[in-house]
Every structure is written in structure tokens, then in C-alpha cells.
Predict the structure.
Amino acid sequence: MNTTNTIPLRSDIPKTDIWDLSKLFSNDAAWEEGFSRFKALIPKAASFSGSLDQSPESLRDCLEYLVEAGKLSERIGYYAFLRYAEDAGNSDNQSRYSRVMQLDAEFSAATSYIDPEIQAIPDRVINEFLADSSLQDFKIMLQKILRFKPHVLSKEEERLLALEQESAAAPQKAFSALTDVDLEFGTIMVEGNEQTISQSSYGALMINKDRTIRKKAFEIFYKGFDAHKNTLASLYAGSIHHDSFVAKARGFASSRAASLFPDNVPDSVYDNLIAAVHEELPALHRYYALRKRMLGVEELRHYDVYVPLIGSIETDYTFRQAVDTVIEAVQPLGKEYVSILQAGLLGGWVDKYENRGKRSGAFSAGSYAGDPYILMNYKNTVFRDVFTLAHEAGHSMHSWYSVNNNPFQHYNYSIFEAEVASTCNEQLLAHHLLSTTDDQQMRAYIIGKQIDDIIATIFRQTMFAEYEHIVHQGYEQGTALTVDYFRSTYRSLLETYFGPEMVFESVSDLEGLRIPHFYRAFYVYKYATGLSAALALSQKILHGSDEDTQKYLDFLKSGGSQYPLDSLKTAGVDMSSPEPVTAALTEFKRLLQEFEGLL
């Protein structure tokens, strides 16, 4: 590992510290061959048109083609994505990624007739087909396709929607180009060094101990957004317009209903989350009152809410030590889970350290053919990276169990379920660390992190979810999507969630125009429900029976074979009820009380 301040080139990273993508393709030349094979498969899509209602066998032939093409598409797509993520500055990586996206759009257009043609098969005929043994492996896939029948258009209309996918992404692409590339926020002096303010560096500046630096960074950052507020409002309005267009075209009652439909999640789950969080806002307000006292400020400002109350503890965990710690923490999940994870983390799953051009942050990318790969930018002295490793390991083991217990056509689980496996691992790690330390500073740090995570994941994401619902509903009821409408709506939510201790800046409500998540509407609520479920399930794993642990493992194995509410109910938590969210926020109050005592 490089120990200087210079970020190494990709070519300088030892092979032992990078992921092994050979299960996808042995090298770039093999990828090119796979790309050519997938491209050659696309014209075959047309050969099934008009034949899907002829017999179970003719329908099966088409579905087998989709699986064959889908597996290959996923392999070439994941390889291209992972190579791009490891070094976006490499022109070959850029080219591969761009070519895959173009070919995927071509494949989507070529196969866009299939779902409508299946849904056009008369009920009597399709029910006979579903009873036929030749289609048993595709029964779940077909049932999910048929569920969309009331919302699928004609072949010609579906083809037009498929061709429109790239232009539909224009608001999000323009937002990203403006805020990540074109918008120059300026610089700030930090410890004698001039630092450029950007979307990525802003978060680090908001946790700087120096309040003067935080205030100045906040003002510079939001000055940039203020200068482009009309453009940003137009882009976000364009995204909402498209959400509404698709929902209306497909016959949904609202944009939100259209978004929740694929996971078979009723509106009540969304509404229950918001209502449960509102009930517990006094506890959040109590936390901000504590934060104000701890920081010793007369007024708690927007730039004061992210700086840690417990400063970074001094640790030096090598990557191997981090792996060992995570492995100890997940022992309650059993020998198979532990042995597979340990072999993967120490084998070819993880791309460990930073290099030039590498994507920031961390992620897990599981696919059917390859390993469940993990991108890290691990640093020995950043203790939070140990939690990040546990989080991504949870995703990867979810993928491993899904792949090894399901056929390709329904192995892929939903985002609703994904956040459960990752945050459950974080809870197990926190429990392990708290049970093995007598260091009060370490204990305060871990509990403080748990509190911060609940605030960021349940309270904050729920506020985002409520905002998305209000502005989409407003548009669908005839409200004009103006800058002032977005700002006044968001400011009202800021005041409701942060409570009476907060004093907001005049530009604070521009936050409602700068969050990238909003361009993929109605999914942020899944982070809040995911952590709520994870808190409940981790308690069952730690304090329940072997049967509780097995139910959780069965949930990981279920992949996409069930809708998320059903799979989580199998695991032992009912997310159709507000009870798990309420229980999670009760845990928040308990942690807050212990935290106050430690301070």
C-alpha cells in the first residue's frame, strides 16, 4: 500500500490489492469477444415475435433466449463498469463503458415487444402455460411480468418508451455535468493550504472542527447553487415531469404508485414511515439541543449539524485487521457465512486502496457470473472504513447467497432488501466492538456513530422521501414547479425535522435542489426501511434462537424469488406495519440516553 501523500497510479497498485475479475473475463480481449457475441445475439430477438402464444415450448424458447442474452449482457456490463470504476481516466475503460450502455439500449429496444406480447396472451391460455412443466423454471418471472399487464402499452408504444430512455436521463445528466464538472464553487484555506470546494470535498469540510471554516465553506458552496438556482429548478422539474408522464402513460394513479409498484409495496408503507418518524421528532430535536450544548454555540446553524461530537479516535487498522474484526463480528451468522466471507475478503473480491482515477467511496457489485466484488478506498487510520467494509460485505454475502440459491431469472434482489443485509452487518460489528472494549472514548465514538447513522438513514432519508412525495403530488394536482415552490416546501421540512434549536441560513433550502438522489424518485425511503428492518433482525440474530438466524439466512437466499415485504416477513420482520420503524426509533432514544451519560 502506498503510504505517501501522492495518490498512486493504477499500474502501481500490487496485484494482491486489486480485485480479480477473471470470473467475468480473463482479460480485455476476452471481453471484446463477449461483446461481439452479445451484439450478434440481438437480431435474434425479432425471431420470437408473434409466436409467444403458440405453445408453452415457444414461450420457453423466447425466455431461454432472454436468460442467455441477459447473462452475457450482465457479464460484459459488470466488467466494463468495474474497469471504469477502478480508473475512469483510462480511455479504454471509458470506451468500454460507453459501448456497453449503447448496446444495452439497442437490446432493450429489440426486446421491448416481449412483455406486451406475453401480457396479451388470453388469461385462459397463459394459465394453461403456467401449469406446464416446461415453464416451471420461469414461473416466478412470468408472474411478475403478468402483474404489469394493466400498465403495459402496445408493442409500438413500448418501443417508443424504450427508445426514449436515453433522452429521459437528460435532466439527471445535465444536473451531474453542472454540479460535478462545470460549476466552480471556489477555494478555501484549510490549515494553510488552498482547497478546492466541490460536491465531494464539501462533506469533509462540514466535519472540520473549525467553525469558521465550516461557515465559510457553506457560504461559498451555496453561493454556487444560488447562482444557478433557476437552472437547477428547471432540471428537477423536468425529472418530475418525466416521472409523471410515465406514470400517466402506464395508467398509474401517481408517480409514487408507479415507483412502488415493481416491489409490490403499497402507499401505506411509505406513509407509515413518514408518520412514525414524525411521532419521534421530539427525540431528534432533543439530540440537536444536545449538539448545541456540546458545541457551545449560541445558535445552532446548518453548518454545525455534521461535525462529530466525538472526534475521530486514533486507530491504525490494517486491511487484514479490519477483515479479522468483521469476521469476528459476523460469527453469529454461522460457519458457512463466515468461511465464504473470509475467503472472499482475503481473496479476489476487494479492490482495496485508492489510486488515480478510481471512483470515490465504496460499493458492492454482485453479478451472476462473477464474484460479489467490493470497491474500497481503505485507509488504515480511518476507523469508519472498518464499518464500511462490514457494510459492503453484507451486500456481497447477500449476492453470494442469492446467486447460489436461485436461477438467473430471479436471483436479483431489490434495493428495498439490499440495505437490510448491509446495515445488519454494521449492527453486528457495533455490538461486537461495544462488547469487547472498556475504552469509554471508543464506546462513545461507536454509539455516536450509531446515532449519526440513524439520523442520516432514517430521519434524513425520510425527510427526503416526504419532500419527493409533496413536490410530485403538487405537480400532479396542478402546482407550478417554480424555484420558490421547491424552496418554500423544503424549508418547511427543514424546520419541522430539525426543530426549534436550528437557525437556518437564507440559502439552506437550496439543499432541495442539490441532492442527486432526487433524480431517481421514490427510492430513498428504502434506506430508512432497510435500517429499521436491520436493527430488528440484528437483535434477533444476537439475542434470539438458531431459528431466528436461519430465517435471516433464508432471507438472504431468497434473492428475487419473492417481493420484498414477503421476503422480510419470512426473515421475521413485518415492514407493512409501522412497528419496526417505531422500534428502531425507540432504540435511537436508548442510544441517545446512553450517549448523554457518556458525555
